[in-house]
Amino acid sequence: MQIYKVGGAVRDRLLGKPVTDIDWVVVGATTEEMLAKGFRPVGADFPVFLHPKSGEEYALARTERKSGRGYGGFTFHASPEVTLEEDLIRRDLTINAMAEDDQQNLTDPFHGQRDLEARLLRHVSPAFAEDPLRVLRVARFAARYTGLGFTVAPETLELMRQLSESGELEALTAERSWKEISRALMEDQPQVFIEVLRECGALKVLMPEVDALFGVPQPEAHHPEIDTGVHTLSVLEQAARHKQPLTVRWACLLHDLGKGLTPEEEWPRHNAHEHKGLKLIKAVNERFKAPKDCQELALLVGEYHTHGHRALELKPSTLLELLQSFDVYRRPQRFEEFIAACEMDARGRKGLEQRSYPQADYLRGAANAARTVAVQPLLEKGFKGPELGEAIKRERLKALKAYKDAASA
Ligand code: CTP
Q: Distance, CA 63 to ligand 1 centroid (Å)?
């Protein structure tokens, strides 16, 4: 049997990037031989094994035939006769379809190295279409490598467009899609992921609520970029620039969905878009089964981001309601993430990227003021049950009034 390093490990070494995961392909071996060498099978019918010591993935060279719609609609054909080239041709991109032996001799039948130099994300063959998830993968690679000058080859974009129009994307499972989306959002330039999906028509299928924001105007006074889609991408860009976690990035992407529902005659104003957007945010959250912390933050940011921007003008009672909604007493981190998302929203506007955001410290101070209210003295005064709750609220309100007065003095 011959063993080759394949995929991302070869690509990233040639790009001079750190290699974390190594995938191997094994040519000329049978399942029985692999088992005899101590490899552990990954799944029952799947020709992939884990190395007994390193735990790295070793896949038997295989050809893949499509047998049905969507993921799961694959049959694998692995046998000792399958050649390296036959294995490589079924892979997604030329830059991912190179193999390397233990002497670092490169097998590159589809000119991945040339495309690396030309900075092109190009599909290997029509077999690309066998896995619609690749539309998301290419967009994710575009987000990752855009800083190096990579773009999607026009013919690949065209194929992605056909796949998006074919209805195949709808067959992707929430889990597979979320894995790509969440990884893409954590790249340095996640806005490129959304741009590429939009360009090939996949955004309209996957997140029509986000797609609908393009072409929707906002008031120029607050939004010099005017277009809501452009604004959303800038907010995401800021979130990445400021190294925000996934929860914040997800919330940034979805915060203005309500603006896509405004009747044209009300443009460029978007009355109550915060509240109107909630059902859309919920739908996108559920479509991809986003993790609970992402879902929660997206909904809270959607509902309250305007409160964040107006923090300094809010009445103490409204401030208190905001803090209660976030349960800042038990969930301080989530409130910090809300503040961060608001700040990214404020900066994701043309020419305002460097603006200061005094609301952030003001909100932190307000949360601290409310938190300083001690419960013990109220218990000692004999408050119990709902009355205790009311008493705590009254004290917090007092603390917030004092805080606001001190801040504006
Ligand atoms: N691959 C593919 N189609 C897919 C998934 C994977 O063709 N839908 C192939 C590609 O050759 C890819 C390799 O399998 O390079 C390994 O896949 P994976 O580990 O998911 O990605 P990497 O390319 O290693 O990239 P990353 O750095 O994002 O992990």
A: 15
Ligand 1 atom 27: the closest Cα is on which residue?
Answer: 8
- Ligand 1, atom 28, residue with closest C-alpha: 8
Nearest atom within ligand 1 for CA of residue 88: 11
**Domains in the chain: how many in total?**
3
Based on the fold, state whether residues 348 and 252 are members of the same structural domain.
yes
Best residue for ligand 1 mutational test, from 90, 91, 94, 131 (most atoms within 8 Å of Cβ): 91
Residue 57: inside a domain, yes or no?
A: yes
Q: Where in 298-402 does DSSP place strands (E)? A: none
| Domain housing 303 | 243-369
Tell me the per-residue pLDDT of 243-301, one tens digit each, with 9 for 90 and over: 999 999 999 999 999 999 999 999 999 999 999 999 999 999 999 999 999 999 999 99
Q: Which atom of ligand 1 is nearest to the CA of 20?
A: 27
Average pLDDT, the chain: 94
Q: Is residue 238 part of a domain?
A: no
| Of 55, 82, 110, the domain-final residue | 110
